[in-house]
Task: structure prediction
Amino acid sequence: NPLGSVTVILDPCNCGGISNPSGLFYKRLKADTYTLSIEYLGYRKETLTVVLDRNTKLSVAMETEEQQLSEIIVLAKKRNQNVESTQMGVFELKARDLIKIPTALGEFDVLRSITLLAGVNNSGDISNGVSIRGGSLDQNLMLYESAPVFNPTHLFGLFSVFTPDVISGVNIYQANIPAKYGGRIASVVDIKVKSPYTDKFKLEGGIGVISSRLSLSTPIIKDKLMLLAGGRIGFTDFLFPVLIPRLKNTKANFRDSTVKLLYLPNERNQFTYTHFFSQDFYQLDLISSIQNIVSSSNQYDFGTSNHTLRWLHGFQNDTNLIGTFVHSNYLPKNLFPEVDSSNVIRFQSQIQYTSAQFEFKDNRNESLNFYAGLQLNQYNINPGSLDPGSGNSILAVTLENEKSREFSLYANLNWNPTERLSISSGLRLTNFNLLGPYIQGQYDENEIFKGTKEFINNEVVVSYFNPEPRIGVNYKLSENSALKASYASIYQYIQNIYNTSTPLPTSRWKISDTFILPQKNDSYGLGWYTNFENSGLEISSEAYYRKTENNLTYKPGADFFLSEFIEREVIQAEGESYGLEFSLRKNRGKVNGFINYTWSRSLLKTNEAILQNRINNNNWYASDFDRPHTVNATLNLEGDAYNSFSFNFTGQTG
Result:
């Protein structure tokens, strides 16, 4: 059969052309010796040497050549995703978007970047704590490749711990959170690591004032096993004496790393393993007194070690089964060098989290698709132990460990009953159990301590079963405009007790028990979205109302550092958060970016019968995360292929 569009290259004339639909190619040349290279996709390349001394006609037969190609995965986003989707309060940031946003001292930072989004606020001027729609720090589920991160900060809270060069993107859910997520009532921040799929070695890095970083990607077994690794290390001790002589003895060092392996045994299965490690040490050159400990400085040494193993199996009918296994270990330490002594007093706590999750997805029908799954979580928490070292004035203290198991079943159904109407409904059923060994305090009706009750290993101390429905409705007004409404009910069984606005290792994590009830959130939302296709503009507005129960705060004068019965130091309050969010985004063109304005309130109220336990005499008061007015803007000026300029603006009241 004749082949059209075959490429013919002749040398030494450096000329050529392509064959016509009949497979013919003509060329008038002067007498000489020529080399012909004949190429066509799917056929073996042919090379001929021809001595041209008269008119010559050649007939060339080409043999087919099959090649085993690597799988190519193409991910696409719908042009009108913000209008088409039933999800509200969701943001998706890719690595290229995060890199554009200018940050302090040039450090790529996930948490700093997301605080520019509507409804997301930093918890202080110099803090990496994130408050989403008026929620507290512990009400955000921070996931890094599906593993929770309990302290996401470096350097006193100035930077986040996530290894910058390996991040592919961030998804933030703050309204009708998908049913596959559970355990936090305000939001989910899901940070994804790049796929290591590569066919060549790549190495890149950089040296900075605050930190230096290095990353690599490489195939280990071609088309079967691939590696992505990145790390960052920061030594800033030399900066403090230069900038602030008073802080000459202040130290701050950190490091983090991410390693991800991808294994492709066959076309139906895919395995990934991710290990994340983060370590911090910093010293505040301040004399302090805590629990009768008088130290010359406060030292903090804390680390995170996370492991994620994921298995993806694709069935022949275009359905998928995903298995995810996670282990997370968070180990914070506080060190207190005693004044005029070589002795160091150590306080240490620990959180160990283990999870297994299986999820089945069926996306065969675009108008009716679903996923369903189950998840088993276990928490082991050491609230704290105090080792006095060689000191004689301080007694050793070891608090009882806490253990819990949580089993969840969940499902989510996406349905398009008409061309204009889309519905996403989900349900998560959760059974939570606090298990022994456990020592529980006993109290009378006036909250006077009456003794303890002991539970043996794996005995159920208290059990909670709660349904968590979620629903989102989208009604399209036109091709580029839609109205949305949403509702979600979520429970939270682990909480953080803290007295700072940034996540620090001094905070204490607590599992829900008989006295400290699970936090609950009922969230309602209504939104309008429209796109202007020609200009690339997206305009949206969302109104939300959050009704929360059992928000944890501490009593006036509370001391929870080494408290054996923490319920004596804290109280739980009801809360309300509500607001209006307006956003204007331009995605295309030389000038692009976004601007948003949020009006919101975040309020708490106690309902304590005992006078000394009341806060603001049981009247509503502003929470620590109340920000009535917030304006954020990011402007990008795209230059040539190598240069772009970005500008940020943030204004807040509170």
Remarks:
- The mean pLDDT is 86.
- The first strand starts at residue 7 and ends at 11.
